[in-house]
Amino acid sequence: MKQNTIDSLKKFEGKEVTLAGWLYNSRASGKILFLIIRDGTGLCQCVVEKGNVSDELFEQLKHLGQESSLTVTGAVRADERSVGGYELAVTAAQIIGPAQDYPITPKSHGIDFLLKNRHLHLRSHRQWCIGKVRHTVVDAIRRFFNDNGFILIDTPIFTTAVGEDQQSLFEVDYFGSPMHLTQTGQLYLESAAMSYGKVYCFGPTFRAEKSKTRRHLTEFWMVEPEVAFTDLDGLLELAENFVSFIVAQVLDKNRSELEALESDISALEAIKPPFYRLTYTEAAEILTGPKAQQFLAEELKQLQEQKKQIEQRITELETKQAGQIKQWQKDPRRFASQSEAAGAADLIELRGELAEVDIKIENNPKHAQLAAEFRWGKDLGGSDETIISHMHDKPIFVTHYPKQAKAFYMKIDRENEKVVLNFDLLAPKGFGEIIGGSVREDDYNRLVERIREHDLNPETYDWYLDLRKYGSVPHGGFGLGVERTVAWITGEQHIRQCIPFPRMMDKVYI
Ligand code: 4AD
Ligand code: MG
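Above: the input record for the complex with magnesium ion. Below: its predicted structure, written as tokens.
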């Protein structure tokens, strides 16, 4: 089959093209049919006028079900009222695979229904936009490291040593012996860093975390760079340049998707180094001081206001959907702006947003209590991160956590032995952690001690300890979660929408 793609229509203005795709939406107005076709590269309005095609084909197209596949042929003409700016004056069409009663209709569906139908929901405009952004994020990750002298190391998925913590291991039966799925490629990566200097691994990661939050998946993608001869400042600089590059690439390549997703583009444009730097101790002071409580009280007010606005928008959209048909009868060419085409999907999303806001309203007093009760020594919880991150408009590094709150491999700060040389990077405006990283303990004896303190067996780590025996160097790295990064950039509330087939603690749908 030879066809053109919607994203290249601009080059064919005035010429005849054939598109192959699926019927996204359609309307009939007497002698004219408006078909919105999607082909994977975009949406295009295709206008079929009676007389330009056979009566039989006209009738077939008129009754064609949503998501039927077809080809359409016609001349390209510019029309700014049309989705994408161009439309097709159809002269021929061929139905390829008819679809009847497509389950995801423009009426509202709950998230459970959509996840059950994930294989179909991936075709929705919103999911399509998120998928495009994810593609750019992944591409930017590889590009950044490949262009900056890092060597890709594919670390194993079956692992023998605990990489992060014992509680979140997925155990598998490996020919009768216990083995687990990787929580991090870091330990293996450290050995490769002693070979190449700068390395990274990028792949799926597994955590049996009993967390049903919007930030947790049991299978997620993580990229981890590891650098020999570096220190905490070097790592922070690498992380801020890296994250800024990813955001710049998305802004460059996915502006229309970001617009359709209603992401905060101007906030993204401000993501440039330097990021904010706070120590854990400073963060703890903010949490237990008056600022956090003031912030939460203010947040509650805003949430209640937001709830009102969403409810209003839902009512408006519901009325608009009914009204649109009338309006369109007056001016049939003015079919669908991007937002109108996505109107039905918006309604679904809005109901989802309303549910999220309700949860936030419910959680607000609990978070206030948690912040007030925060004590130095604890790891920052999700709600603590949210508070700190809400107070900033750019990403925030939180450094120097208490050693008892963090993994065994983190290097103890020789100037203050209560803390480790680590950092988390919190995405701003309430999103929370997207990166965790540290300088690694490079002293053999101290590392053995730390392994024991964590109730782990030094014998399992003999190869890892060897790195401290044969030419140990100061080194470190970090891990960035892909789904969390995509969720932050797109403004998506829940990271489950940012991976094609999400695996959550409570449910794996398909
Ligand atoms: O902070 P974490 O646990 O760090 C590590 O795994 C280190 N070994 C990385 C390193 O230093 N090489 O995880 C890193 C990032 C988090 O900041 C988060 O973005 C993501 O991985 N992440 C998750 N994403 C989704 N679901 C989960 N359950 C996640 N757990 C961590
Ligand atoms: Mg972490």
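Notes for the reader.
Residues 424, 433, 436 surround magnesium ion (ligand 2) (CB under 6 Å).
Residues 133 and 254 are 6 Å apart (CA to CA).
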